[in-house]
Amino acid sequence: MSAVLMEVYGRKFVHAVVAVPGIMGWICIYYADSASMIMIGRALTGLASNASLGAIIVGEYSSPENRGLFLNLKTTLVTIGYMMVHTLGHFYHWRTVALIATLPHTASLLITCTWPESPAWLASKAEYDKSQKSFYWLRGKNVKTINEIEDVVKAQKEKIRISSEMKALTLSEKVIEFFKKFGEKDFVKPVIIVVFGGILLEACGRHIFSAFAVQIVEEVTQNKAQSYYFTLGIDVVITTSAVISSILVKFCKRRTLLFSTGFSALFILYILCGYLYLESIDVFSKERTYIPIIMFILYFVLSSLGCISIPLLLLGEIFPLAHRGAGSFISSFAFDIFLTVALKIAPFLLATVKVYGTFSILGIAMGVSLTGLYFTLPETKDRTLQEIENYLNYGKYHVEYDLEAKQTEHCRLYSEGKNVECSDQNFNIFQEDALFGEIFPLAHRGSGGFVDGSLVLVILTITMQVTPYLLVNAKVYGTFAILGTVMLLSLIALWILLPETKDKTLKEIENYLNYGKYGRDDDEARLKIPKVTATPC
């Protein structure tokens, strides 16, 4: 819900509003006289807990140099909260702890009232003067900040210009354009990164250990009486590591910190699991309980430095402004799903494969996530949010926004007979490649996209419905023989119908589909340069 509201009403208003159900939820828990009342309270506090909203606000309000530090401090405060709840829960009644929990929400509400609105959100709503005023209030006014806010304003002006052009589209074309956003590179790639980050966050045992700490420590130490103190000690270690991580992220690159500590933690984890397994079959003595505890501490130190902090930090950096609301929703949804799955399967794993088996399985997920992030995660340290957005779109941090100069250069090349077209489509450096490739002429690109998407969906549905029947009746060899026949017929049809499109402009492909040749006989008309009106940034 907050992801939708933050796009419409702004970051400040929504951050203040979500604190209210948090206060109400803890009050409900304090006065609860039944399980249903506690569930209502937990539901209300759940509405207030949105990690991605806070991360987005910190990312938009802070400077590139300090953004990593502030985002990491946010994670550090979460670990401090875990430690405080464990400590207070040992000495006070749970109703008292619930009442104390209203204080952070109340403080958050009061402090939020003193904020200016997010400069990035104001720019996305074409409130450029207010955006600059808010930006300079937050960051001061110097050459660097002036250049940064100018880049943001230029980028948003171009996006608003594109949006205004879409107003002339039909309803079906607008629907197609909307769903095309979910296939854009600057949306898909951050989602993949967030998914890997969410899996990593849960695989390193952040929530599992907090929820089942007593059970885990009791199995490792064979001492139920001392399990609380071991749990508190590991909480202190995790919190201290989070504080150290906040300092390191100020000086170390994100990728360096994540992968050096992540793979080291994974190595320590498998040594720990191996030791616990050998201990369970009496190869090692169970009396030396300090050995696995020390390895657990070392593991949580390393994982807290990168695997816990970096995924949460990325929530405030990785999504472009145009997708920040949808990205916040998907991030929260994905993180909640991963948390739910982790907490549901953990008791079953701990009961069946013990601690060493549970953490071995988590280690596999952790290794897969680290590998996925290694190939997808860009370096974001000391980069502005606009530079990160540029990298996701164009593969480089700095992009030229001077559209008029690009139009002039394209028209010059066209007049010299080079293979370029002098049209607005060539100059729009912000649009992605057409979702439907090269083959549809401009006049039919909207309807062609609709037909293309519908056919793909129909063919996919037929394939998924027919395949189980074929596997049962025609077996694997018969199924793939039929698929091979369809594949062969498709290749023959494409060989006959498909024109060569390599190094051809979209206009030349359209000419071929209309006239059977790439060029037109009317050379004078072909070489005539249309009048170009440069759209100001």
Question: In terms of topology, how is this protein built?
Answer:
Blueprint: H1 2-9, H2 11-17, H3 19-30, H4 35-48, H5 51-61, H6 64-91, H7 94-100, H8 102-112, H9 119-124, H10 128-139, H11 143-166, H12 171-180, H13 185-203, H14 206-221, H15 227-251, H16 254-280, H17 290-305, H18 309-314, H19 324-352, H20 354-376, H21 385-394, H22 403-415, H23 424-427, H24 445-473, H25 475-497, H26 506-515, H27 523-527
Helix pairs in contact: 1-2, 1-19, 2-8, 3-4, 3-7, 3-8, 5-6, 5-19, 6-15, 10-11, 13-19, 13-20, 14-15, 14-19, 15-17, 16-17, 16-20, 19-20, 24-25
Plain-language structure description:
By secondary structure, the chain is an all-alpha fold. Among the domains are: 53-78 and 169-387, MFS general substrate transporter like domains (Growth Hormone, Chain: A), CATH 1.20.1250; 402-439 and 501-537, no CATH class; 447-499. Helices cover 75% and strands 0% of the residues. The protein has 27 helices and no strands. It has helices spanning 2-9, 11-17, 19-30, 35-48, 51-61, 64-91, 94-100, 102-112, 119-124, 128-139, 143-166, 171-180, 185-203, 206-221, 227-251, 254-280, 290-305, 309-314, 324-352, 354-376, 385-394, 403-415, 424-427, 445-473, 475-497, 506-515, 523-527. Helix 3 (19-30) packs antiparallel against helix 4 (35-48) and helix 24 (445-473) runs antiparallel to helix 25 (475-497). The longest helix has 29 residues, at 324-352. The radius of gyration is 28 Å and the shape is globular. Mean pLDDT is 79; it is low at 402-436 and 522-537.
